Structure formats: structure tokens, C-alpha cells
């Protein structure tokens, strides 16, 4: 391969299973180069095979260690795993220290695993803007499972739920009282709740608070067209399989305790998604959201290009001078005046 | 829309348990706008080469205080070459006797930085070697 292969050549090498090409293409995707967009288009028909699992939770709950042992367990069940570990970019320097690999040393030397660290490059929401695209590259590369570990998230980093099929929210004892547990946001996106560090004191309290939160009412996931049920693909399951009870799984990631139960919970959720039609509903919702976001970005760029940045700053001045209301300024910009 | 960042792997091969220097460097490179993958203590050369491949880094920085550099560095270099990563910029920091520096340079190490090196010097070396002024 030439020193600087085209993204297209890299995409073809990715489909042949070449790991170096995979790593290099991910860099281009992260850098949002023009040729990476074409490469993604080449890969698109080869995607849709991977099961995407999101792992999120507050800093210090043990997400990376959990991803490490979860991956080992998935490997034991014969699944190949691509991991994307997202850490924050410094808003001051634009640089980042990406340290999630520290806890994933067990996975080295296994060609069925590929780990990639990503800086979020200023995106809020827990992921980088290109994390979804990188997940698709790993999908096209043939990984059975793609695990996405978000930045240490608080209450609003819920973007992962729009990217993953199954979202694990990781909690640990002693992080907050039960009021924290009923706050909106991150707990509401959980398909599986994990209480890690379950050997620590106070674990019963954490589990009870989470149970109370869950029993307070089931969130309704509004993912597109629930009415459009797809055909049931596995017929052995019970017929009334369209209600998902969020399980609480206790783990001690460092010793591997509870990991088998966690993998079982994932498999149950995956089966539920297939049988309820939610899998397709989520994919449809994801694609809808993505097209919308891409259209917004493209239309914004096109408008800026056509009107020029001066027109925008002129409009800002007019609004500041109270000559125009923001609504009028928008209309004027759209009408090209 | 396109933005590229210098990606650096900072690794501590060998058995000594001191990573203060490595962390200081990681932070300094972050503050210079680079993306630094820090892999922690006691990395084998195999782990380092694999991480460098998966992370598609431009630079590998090895921090070695144990005195085992003449064993570890050639092995890392050899594995990087085997993975097709021969052109990755290789830096060594830590406690390296003066007489070993030319030998390391000959092995393909771009620069050796001892204790007390100004971190800015390292940043500038990386930027110059990669011939990139940005990030």
C-alpha cells in the first residue's frame, strides 16, 4: 500500500480485514476529511451487522474496567469486539489525554478485539461528533459487537442512547443520595442499570434507590413508529415480548463478579429489541436524527456561503441595535436581503 | 470542517513503577493541543506496538527509568516496523546514560530527553519532526 493511500483504498482494505487500514481510516473519519465521506459511503452497504452497546455513567464508576471484563466475556462467547473509548478534549488547548486503555490491558494481543480512543473534540453529549461514523467503520470491518464508552457523564450526556442498540448506565455506591437517582437524564436512557463496585458498603442503598426510581414509572421510549412492528425473527420467545423491564445488575468489575449476569442481560435486551420490533424502530429513529443533523449542518454551511459571514454579522448588529427582532433577522437572511 | 490533530502514544515499558515523568509529558503535550493516549505502567513492547497501530499515532514516546532501554527500545522499534509503523516518530525519555544516546539514535530514535528537559522543547521537536505547525 502506498504511503498515503486514498480513503477509498483504505475502505477496501478495511473490508479485507486489514487492521492498519482500519486505524488509518478512523483517523480520516475523525478528521472529517472529504475523502473519508466517500469511504463511509463505500462502507455503508456493509454495515448493520454489529450490535452496538453503549456504556455510560459518572466518572469513577468503573466504566473502563467494566468494558474490559465485558469484552473478555463476549470473547469467551465467540464474539469479536470493537471498542471506542471517548474522553474529553481540553476546551483550552484542544488537546486531550486519553487514558481508557490503562484499564484494558487484558485485551492486548487478541486479534478479535480492536480498541480506539477518541477525544470528543468539543462535542457535548458524551460522544465526539464522529463517534457514530467510527462505530460504522468498525461495523463494516466485521466486529460482532461495538462497545462505545462515553466520557464520564453526568445528567445530560444522553447522546449515546441515540447511537447504541443497548445502553448500560453504570452507577456505583456512595455517589449520591436517592434524589440523584430520580433526576431526569442519564438514568432514563438506561436499558440495563449496572451497580458496579458492588462489594462496597452502601450497595443495598444504591440498588434500593434505583429500584424505587424504576418503579416510579416506566419511561416511554418514543422511538419512531412503534406501530410498525417488524416480523418476529426468533419464534421461540414468548409472544408478549414488547415490554422491557430495566434490570439492575450488580457487578464487581475488578474481580469479574456479576459479568456473566451482565452479558445475559445484554443478550436478553438484544432479543427483546429483535422481537419487539424496537431494533428497527431505533435504527429508523437514529437515521432520521442523523439525516436531520446533517441537513441542518449542510444547509447552515450553504447559507453562510451564499450570504457571506458579513451578512450574518450585519444581522447581529441590527438585532443588537433593536432595528430588527431575531425572527425578522432570520427571515431577512433566508430571503437574501 | 476538517481538522487534524497530532496523536501521541505515551507508554512506560518495563518494570519500574514510576510514571510521574510520563504523566507530566502527557499533560504538556495535551496543553500543546495534541491528543495523547496514555497506556499506564508496565507495558510490554507488544502492547505498545499494538496500541500504536490501533490508535494510528504519529508519535510514540517511551519513558524508561529502569535502565533496560537497550533491551526495550530495539524491541519496540522492531515490532513497530513489523506492523508497518516504521515511520512513526520514536522518542525516549527518562534516565539514559549519555553513551547510550548515540546508540539509540542509530536504532531510529528521533530524540532522547533526559530529566529536567523543558517540555516545550519536546513539543517543538515533535512539531518540527512532523513538519506541522498546527495543533
Please describe what this structure looks like.
Chain A is an alpha/beta fold and 337 residues long. Chain A has three domains: 1-42, no CATH class; 47-276, P-loop containing nucleotide triphosphate hydrolases (Rossmann fold, 3-Layer(aba) Sandwich); 292-335, no CATH class. Helices cover 43% and strands 12% of the residues of chain A. Chain A has eleven helices and eight strands. Chain A has helices at 7-15, 19-31, 34-43, 63-76, 131-140, 178-182, 203-215, 259-276, 278-307, 309-320, 326-335; strands at residues 51-57, 81-87, 96-98, 113-119, 145-149, 166-171, 192-195, 248-250. A seven-stranded parallel beta sheet of chain A has the order 4-2-5-1-6-7-8, sandwiched between helices. In chain A, helix 1 packs across helix 2 (19-31), helix 2 (19-31) packs antiparallel against helix 5 (131-140) and helix 4 crosses helix 8. The longest helix of chain A is centred in the last third of the chain and has 30 residues, at 278-307. Chain A is globular. The termini of chain A are far apart. Chain B is α/β, with parallel strands linked by helices. Chain B has one domain: Rossmann fold. Helices cover 41% and strands 18% of the residues of chain B. Chain B has a five-stranded parallel beta sheet, with helices on both faces. The radius of gyration of chain B is 14 Å and the shape is globular. At the A-B interface, helix 2, strand 3 and strand 4 of A face helix 1, strand 2 and helix 2 of B. Strand 3 of chain A pairs parallel with strand 2 of chain B.
Amino acid at each position: 500500500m502506498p504511503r498515503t493511500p486514498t480513503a477509498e483504498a483504505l475502505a477496501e482494505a478495511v473490508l479485507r480485514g486489514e487492521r492498519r487500514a482500519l486505524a488509518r481510516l478512523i483517523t480520516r473519519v475523525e478528521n472529517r476529511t472529504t475523502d473519508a465521506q466517500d469511504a463511509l459511503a463505500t462502507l455503508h452497504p456493509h454495515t448493520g451487522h454489529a450490535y452496538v452497546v453503549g456504556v455510560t455513567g459518572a466518572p469513577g464508576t468503573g466504566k473502563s474496567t467494566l468494558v474490559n471484563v465485558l469484552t473478555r466475556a463476549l470473547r469467551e462467547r465467540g464474539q469479536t469486539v470493537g471498542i471506542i473509548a471517548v474522553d474529553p478534549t481540553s476546551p483550552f488547548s484542544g488537546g486531550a489525554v486519553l487514558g481508557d486503555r490503562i484499564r484494558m490491558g487484558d485485551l492486548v494481543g487478541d486479534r478479535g478485539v480492536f480498541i480506539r480512543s477518541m477525544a470528543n473534540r468539543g462535542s457535548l453529549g458524551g460522544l465526539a461528533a464522529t463517534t457514530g461514523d467510527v462505530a460504522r467503520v468498525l461495523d463494516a470491518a466485521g466486529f460482532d459487537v461495538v462497545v462505545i464508552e462515553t466520557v464520564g457523564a453526568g445528567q445530560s450526556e444522553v447522546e449515546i442512547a441515540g447511537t447504541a442498540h443497548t445502553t448500560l448506565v453504570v452507577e456505583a455506591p456512595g455517589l449520591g443520595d436517592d434524589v440523584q437517582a430520580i433526576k431526569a437524564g442519564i438514568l432514563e436512557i438506561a436499558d440495563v442499570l449496572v451497580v458496579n463496585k458492588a462489594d462496597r458498603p452502601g450497595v443495598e442503598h444504591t440498588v434500593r434507590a434505583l429500584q424505587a426510581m424504576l418503579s416510579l414509572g416506566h419511561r416511554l421510549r418514543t422511538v419512531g413508529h412503534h406501530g410498525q412492528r417488524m416480523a418476529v425473527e426468533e419464534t421461540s420467545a414468548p409472544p408478549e415480548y414488547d415490554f422491557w423491564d430495566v434490570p439492575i445488575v450488580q457487578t464487581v468489575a475488578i474481580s469479574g463478579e456479576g459479568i456473566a449476569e451482565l452479558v445475559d442481560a445484554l443478550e436478553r435486551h438484544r432479543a427483546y429489541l429483535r422481537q419487539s420490533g424496537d431494533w428497527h424502530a431505533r435504527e429508523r429513529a437514529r437515521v432520521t436524527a442523523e439525516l436531520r443533523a446533517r441537513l441542518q449542518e449542510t444547509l447552515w454551511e450553504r447559507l453562510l456561503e451564499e450570504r457571506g459571514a458579513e451578512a450574518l454579522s450585519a444581522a447581529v448588529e441590527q438585532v443588537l441595535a433593536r432595528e430588527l427582532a431575531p425572527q425578522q433577522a432570520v427571515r431577512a437572511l433566508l430571503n437574501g436581503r | 470542517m476538517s481538522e487534524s490533530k497530532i496523536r501521541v502514544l505515551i507508554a512506560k515499558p518495563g518494570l519500574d513503577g514510576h510514571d510521574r515523568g510520563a504523566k507530566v509529558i502527557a499533560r504538556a503535550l495535551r496543553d500543546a493541543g495534541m491528543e495523547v493516549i496514555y497506556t499506564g505502567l508496565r507495558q510490554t513492547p507488544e502492547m505498545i506496538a499494538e496500541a500504536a497501530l490501533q490508535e494510528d499515532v504519529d508519535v510514540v514516546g517511551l519513558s524508561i527509568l529502569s535502565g533496560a532501554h537497550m533491551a526495550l527500545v530495539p524491541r519496540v522499534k522492531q515490532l513497530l516496523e513489523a506492523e508497518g509503523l516504521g515511520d512513526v516518530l520514536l522518542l525516549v525519555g527518562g534516565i539514559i546514560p549519555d553513551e547510550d544516546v548515540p546508540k539509540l539514535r542509530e536504532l531510529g530514535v528521533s530524540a532522547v530527553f533526559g530529566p529536567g528537559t523543558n517540555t516545550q522543547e519536546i513539543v517543538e521537536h515533535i512539531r518540527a519532526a512532523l513538519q506541522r505547525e498546527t495543533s
